[in-house]
Amino acid sequence: MVALRDLLIASTQRLTDAGIAADEARTEARLLLQHAFGLTREQLILRPDLELDSSVLEPLLARRASREPLAYILGERGFYGLSFRVTPAVLIPRPETELLVEAVINLPARLGSPPSGFAKGLLDIGTGSGCIAVTLAKLLPDVQVWATDISEAALDVARENAARHGAAVTFCLGDLLAPLPPEQRFEIVVSNPPYIAPADAKTLEPEVGVFEPHTALFDPISGSDGLTLYRRLASEAPARLRPSGWLMVEVGQGQAEAVARLFADAGLTNIEVREDLAGTPRVVLAQKSGLDRT
Ligand code: GLN
Q1: How far is the CA of 93 from the centre of ligand 1 (A)?
Q2: What is the C-alpha to C-alpha distance for residues 116 and 129, in angstroms, rounded to an integer?
Q3: Helix (H, G, I), strand (E, B) or coil at 279
Q4: Which residues are registered as beta bridge partners of 273?
Q5: Which of 69, 111, 165, 239 sits 20 to 30 Å CA-CA off 208?
Q6: Where are the alpha helices (DSSP H) in the chain?
Q7: How is the chain split into domains, by residue range?
């Protein structure tokens, strides 16, 4: 048995030795300890003499020291104030993606009204954990939320997250918009597609490149520039938008200008680029004309 205080120090050191930055290592060691022994944050702080069996923590520490992301070990990640189940079948929700959610909820004043007899519709393409779709379904209860993903295993996680938060989302398995009923139209189409150029794989931290699902990270065409799915969204999504509807996407570093141009070339207007907290252009918004030409 080891005193909590000593176990925390040794665990932090182990994670630092594995290449994790010192401040993160301490926070993560705390979270792993809480998780392993079912302790609250308060207990962790107030009971440094608590005697613990270090062999309970050992397998979790070994996983993190191998650079498996903390979120997969804990099975949870917070996004926009909600806790999401995550498994290696899904991309771990990122704080930058909250900007896309924010852009959507600031939109209603600028949305066209759906034709009478129709509810407003929102589609999340490549939903992964479902973090975007589920959060928006909670925040916009009058909007019908649909979500697609090409991975059945990801959709299982997304369905679990929708159930966990009591969110009504219609999930469809398939490529981009292909699995949707052909007549279905949307006021908003959002997506955080896989946008990393395959050639950049070697620049990724092991947490990302080794552990996160490659279909969720990489442009599916080998040798391409990372923009393949934006090209496809620009050509396939506008026909599914109702007049005055919006296409809104997250983009990778350095991609915003090219994506804005793709959307403009597809006939969309009122193009806007939003920056994330680090000042990186991160979200591109574009509106379909108010007249239905499709
Ligand atoms: N929509 C999910 C997210 O934003 C998954 C995105 C993805 O897998 N590329 O986290």
Answers
A1: 7
A2: 33
A3: coil
A4: 284
A5: 165
A6: 4-17, 22-37, 41-46, 54-65, 70-74, 98-105, 131-139, 152-164, 206-209, 214-217, 228-236, 256-265
A7: 2-66, 88-287
For a pLDDT cut of 90, what percent of the chain falls above it? 91
Tens digits of residue pLDDT in 8-40: 999 999 999 999 999 999 999 999 999 999 999
Please indicate whether residue 255, judged by its CB atom, sits closer than 6 Å to ligand 1.
no
Q: Is the CB of 194 within 6 Å of ligand 1?
A: yes
* Cβ of 93 below 6 Å from ligand 1: yes
Instruction: Find the radius of gyration of the CA atoms of the chain.
Output: 21
pLDDT, position 109: 62
Q: Ligand 1 atom 8: the closest Cα is on which residue?
A: 216
Ligand 1 pocket, 176 CB below 6 A? no
pLDDT tens per residue, range 212-246: 999 999 999 999 999 999 999 999 999 999 999 99
Ligand 1 centroid from CA 245, angstroms? 22
- Is this structure's pTM higher than 0.85? yes
The Cα–Cα gap between 249 and 184 comes to 20
pLDDT of 119: 78
Q: At what angle do helices 54-65 and 22-37 cross, to 10 degrees?
A: 140
For 259-281, the pLDDT digits (tens) are 999 999 999 999 999 999 999 99
Q: From the CB of 148, is ligand 1 less than 6 Å away?
A: no
**For the chain, what is the mean pLDDT?**
95
Provide mean pLDDT across the span 139-146: 94
CA of 117 from ligand 1 middle (Å) equals 32
For ligand 1, is residue 245 a contact (CB within 6 Å)?
Answer: no
Its CATH architecture, for the domain 88-287, is 3-Layer(aba) Sandwich (3.40)
Name the closest-CA residue to atom 1, ligand 1: 127
- Ligand 1 atom closest to the Cα of residue 90 is 8
Q: Which residue is closest in CA terms to ligand 1's atom 7?
A: 216
